[in-house]
Amino acid sequence: MSRGTRHLLFLFAAVPLLLCAKQEPASPAANSKSPAQRPLNFERDITPLFSRFGCNASSCHGKAEGQNGFKLSIFGYDPAADHSALVRESRGRRTSASAPENSLLLRKISGEVPHAGGARIPRGAAAYETMRAWVAGGAPFGSTNDARVTGIQIEPAERVLPVNSKLPLRVIAAFTDGTKQDVTHLCIFQSNSDRLARVDAHGVISTGDIAGQSAVMARFLGSVSVCRLLIPRSGPAAPATSVPAFNFIDTLVDEQLRKLNLASSGLCDDATFLRRAFLDIIGTAPTPAESRAFLADTRSDRRARLVDSLLERPEYADYWALRWADLLRVDRQALGHKGAFAYYEWIRGALLENRSFDRVARELLTAEGPLDESAAGHFYKVAKRPGDMSGIVAQVFLGVRIACAECHQHPYDRWSQRDYYGMQAFFQQVGYKKGATGELLTAEGTPALSHPRTSESIHPYPLGGVMPATTPDGDRRQNLAAWLVAPENPWFARNLANRMVAHFFGRGLVEPVDDVRATNPPTNPALLDALARHVVEKRFDLKQLIRTLAASRTYQLSSAPNAANEQDEQNYSRALFRRLPAEVLLDAVGDAIGVPEKFEGVPAGYRAIQLWDSQMEHYFLKLFGRPQRASACDCERNSGASISQVLHLMNSPELQAKLAHEGGAVARLTREHSSDEKLTEEIYLAFFSRFPTSTEKAAAIRHLQRDPRQRRHAAEDLSWSLLNSLEFAYNH
Amino acid sequence: MNRPLAPNLFCDRSPRRDFLRVGVAGLFGMNLAVPALLRQQALAASGASPVAGNSEMSFIYVFLKGGMSTIDTFDLKPDAPENIRGEFQPMNTNVPGIQICDQLTRIARQMDKFSLIRSFTHRNANHGEADHYMLTGYHPVAGFNGGLKPNNQQPSFGSAIAQKLGARGSVPPYICLPTMHPSGGAAYLGPAAVPFVIEADPSSPSFSVPDLSPPLLLDPTRLAARREILAQVDRFQKSAEVRANSGANLMGAFSHRAIDLMTSPEAKRAFNIQEEPEKLRDEYGRNTLGQSCLMARRLVEAGVRCVTVEHSNWDTHDRNFSALKDQLMPKFDLAIAALFRDLADRGLLQRTLVVVTGEFGRTPQINKNAGRDHWSRCFTVALGGGGIQGGRVLGTSDRWAQDPAERPCGPEDLAATTYHLLGINPQDELHTPEGRPIALTNNGRVIRELL
User: Fold this and answer.
1) B226 vs A717: CB contact, 8 Å cut-off?
2) Can you give A122-135 as a three-state secondary structure string?
């Protein structure tokens, strides 16, 4: 067998050397013992073959019910069960040491007997020889002293790669005995974006003709590793940016743009900045008076002053409470009216007083006692199961999804079932007692938790940690909270920074923002690191983070592309168009038309961004993608558009009634301004928060003067047109 | 996996969306006066081929969300043990030799108009992923997020058809009733292939498509004036800014469709289900599924190329038999029987392919809650019209309907067959906005035995 395996190793090691000899470092796998020198081990030598050839995939023997009576654990997460299925089940027909070629295993994989999966590994192939040798050797499971894999490293880990080129990867596994082995031929490869770069089964990457960033993952046993690719724009060198960096964000963005041969756009004008900052920071468009004041401000620090003043407005708390209530799931169906409102008020209160984000997280995690007094405790009423509690905490505060690991090893990350239950164990004590005034949230007692497969006792430990030998006394959530908000936590500050970057720049450094994985690396790791450090330095002060983001040149860029960035939407080289969220759009419509929307069940004067109950029936809000808060996923809020939305803005009788309302803005402005020029200006300020250009003004005046008896109708129609423009529905 | 059959919860604990929930990707554009040239450019940029498809064919896809138990409906196993065969008996149909469930008496009388594939199989028994597979012909790959709306990695059948054939007349090529399935989207094809979603229940007495007509008090002069001003003021409509934003660069095609709809008498008439005789509306069943099927027929008649009718909730983990008998099958029997009869009597069946299936079937083994769990290894797909022979059974399942016994067919084959019947070459390609070719079907084979 050893000859075959060595042959295979040689073959795969040789491919990169041939293609790319100069770039390859000397083999670090030199100290690895080849299988010839050590006894075969089922997990190390056989399981990877089942993965490599798709045998244990969810489409085949890896699915819950197995395939044709033979079941393997998905992705080989349970070698003991797999070994037993091969060696003990089916009366031992699957492996026969005396006549290995007659083993069902070898006859099936080579297609010598009918196999629904076809001939996967032909007789004579290296993988076949490995399996044959293993069967001939008595199909050993291996010894507990055998070296186990500790991790894999893909090489190179990062590479700038031109369009239409190839790059062979190499993957080195490290073992507990200190040895290393080239496992390239045993890995499964996957690209994050086939559009940008494909990878074949041998780990050779091919880029296409599109520039951008991608990542290619390798998986071997339970380990994953990633190669980040930067594919520069082809064509002439991009000009250096004309505007100097305003703060550290811009420096790091520029570095990235240089690597990718991209250039940033120029700065946006004041009117664009004004509307952008209002919509992003307080979810509200500026009034005409606010626009006039800002556009007349000539102080050099007017943009920073604007941001400061917005952060002090009550709408700041309203708007951000809405967004956090989505993620923390203020759900009236689950909590009842009173509970949901109290939970929401706790969130809004925290934002109003700018409570530091680590404190907010800690309060939520460690809430206890009567829910009347400890409103954050309603979280536990929404999450219900301990597994959901840990899942939501991981997703919302760390940006990590661990749900996959409830049933098996996370296929795209390092999380095992043990890690999943280690997190869940922190919440196992959560329960309720009857108190004098109502329910008491408690976290006490010593409920045990065991691994569903191995029955091993699980003691609470956080992601990336090592399981301790015992469970600590007292409320376990305190321990989790301390770990969560510690400055050295690798996810907490990054998650906050990433979510805020997504909000202000239109795209997270990691996308989706709540899917941080080893195999989903940030587009600009240095920038994410720097922002996370900044968050920690500023003690998790949300307003300070917003100031920093808004003060960057990156935030203040124009949306107008140039030749060197028109294809780029990944690297913050220009401002991206973002559709206004449902509630913000509805408020903007009401403000511009001057007729506020009335909502059922809340006092008059409530704005859409103040609605704490996402289940309140409202056609417009549903149509424009308000989330139902059924999950903690950021993706529930839908910013996509539809024909139905277009039709609604154009034809809705309610909107028409508001436009024609006697008490509305159109009626008032037409009465107050006999000058068509002035009327045009006012309408533009109301809808676009800017003055019209001279061309726009001339066109509008022509329209207003077409029939002097119908001036009011003409003003209405002009307003309707602005309302139905992209400039209105988008933050640009 | 055994959870109560709650009215609005799937077993993965994701709530079903209320039928008004929006989920359409695409763009936002409102220029009413987009010149035809600009539209052409937009289409070209999208890689769309605005072929005036000559095909007369249409496609109605009745999707039974949650997964219909086909061992209880179209592929009964009366000789299996009690814990497999279930409570229903087989019954003769109007085609000698074909038996279906005794609860489907009306459908049994239409058996000559459609056929059954009893050896349908695929590899994913999860909601979301299986749905994507059955609605696109592509199994999802890494990065699939079932929670997104839409969640398409590949275009839905309807979107691909819309892209390949374009609109027929002034009605949209692809319509979803009463709402859009999360996998019913266009993926990379862009707004021209995005479905028009009705967002209303055709069985409601006050049914109308929301906002289809401008407010009544606006006279035509003002409507024209509005469109004219909009074209002038919407400075981003044709701008480089918007072209460079994948979220907003194809509004020409998109808004044009909104206008087409508003100004189309055909569309208006097709949506007016109240025009149908009461007796026919009763025959289809006065419920969402029945009236959606009736609406689908009206839309096909008006020229719509693909109508998807989504119906929930077939996820019968609990009390499978009473759910089927009392709630699901009575409506199903009325709607599907009426659809085949009505299409045939109007001469529409030859040019209308009807496919009826869920994302998978359900376990042969009955669970402890008298329910059946997910089973994708073997289930039955019903299909008829559009060139499919009626009254046939293709393939068989093994004795307990666990696996296909002969002639297995999969979602790839369904895709190839559908495209073939619609007049689209299954070997054809689609193109991403960057021009990368993607095969229309993932090596699917046309199911020739039924043609």
Assistant:
1) yes
2) CCCCHHHHHHHHHH
Does B345 map to a domain?
yes
Q: Is residue A285 part of a domain?
A: no
How does the average pLDDT of chain B come out, rounded?
Answer: 84
Which residues form the domain of B421? 36-450
**Residue B199: CATH number of its domain:** 3.40.720.10
- Evaluate whether residue A569 is within a structural domain: no
Closest partner residue to A622 (CB to CB) among B20, B230, B262 is B20
pLDDT at residue A628 in the model: 82
User: Among A130, A100, A121, which Cα is nearest to A40's?
Assistant: A130
Q: Which two tokens mark B267?
A: 């569309």
Reported confidence tier of residue B1, pLDDT bands at 50, 70, 90: very low
Residues A56-80, buried b or exposed e (16+ Cβ, 10 A)? bbbebbbbeeebeebbbbbbbbbbe
Q: Is residue A358 a part of any domain in this protein?
A: no
Size of interface A-B (CB pairs under 8 A): 202
- Same domain for A179 and A61: no
Q: Is A442 in CB contact (< 8 Å) with chain B?
A: no
Residues of B in contact with A717 (CB under 8 A): 222, 225-226, 229
Task: Read off the DSSP letter of residue A26.
Answer: P
Contact state of B212 with A647 under an 8 Å Cβ cutoff:
yes
pLDDT bin (cut points 50, 70, 90) of residue A22 is very low
Question: Which of A324-328, A494-498, A613-617 has the least mean pLDDT?
Answer: A613-617
Is residue A642 located within the same domain as residue A691?
A: yes
Q: To probe the interface with B, which of A642, A693, A695, A716 has the most B CB atoms within 10 Å?
A: A642
A714 lies in the same domain as A586: yes
Q: In chain B, how many domains are there?
A: 1
Q: Percentage of chain A surpassing pLDDT 90?
A: 70
Residue B253 region by backbone torsions, left for phi larger than 0, else alpha for psi between -120 and 50, else beta: alpha
Interface contact A703-B222, CB threshold 8 A: no
Cβ-nearest to A726 among B29, B213, B240: B29
pLDDT tens-place string over residues B308-354:
999 999 999 999 999 999 999 999 999 999 999 999 999 999 999 99
What's the CA gap between B305 and A62, in Å, rounded?
Answer: 39
Residues of B with Cβ-Cβ distance to A512 under 8 angstroms: 145
The pLDDT score that the predictor gives to residue A23 is 36
Q: Based on the domain organization, do A428 and A446 belong to the same domain?
A: yes
**Is the domain of A530 the same as that of A586?**
no
Q: Give residue-wise pLDDT tens across range A408-454.
A: 778 778 888 999 999 999 999 999 998 887 889 999 999 999 998 88
Structural domains in chain A (count): 5
pTM of the model: 0.80
> In the structure encoding, which two tokens stand for residue A279, read together?
């919509």
- CB-nearest to B145 from A512, A649, A703 is A512
Q: How far is A721 from chain B (nearest CA, A)?
A: 5
Compute the mean pLDDT over every residue in chain A, rounded to the nearest whole number. Answer: 90
* Chain B CB within 8 Å of residue A410 CB: no
Residue of B nearest to A383 (CA): B13
**What is the ipTM metric for this complex?**
0.78
- Closest to A727 (Cβ–Cβ): which among B15, B235, B254? B235
Domain around A409: 381-485
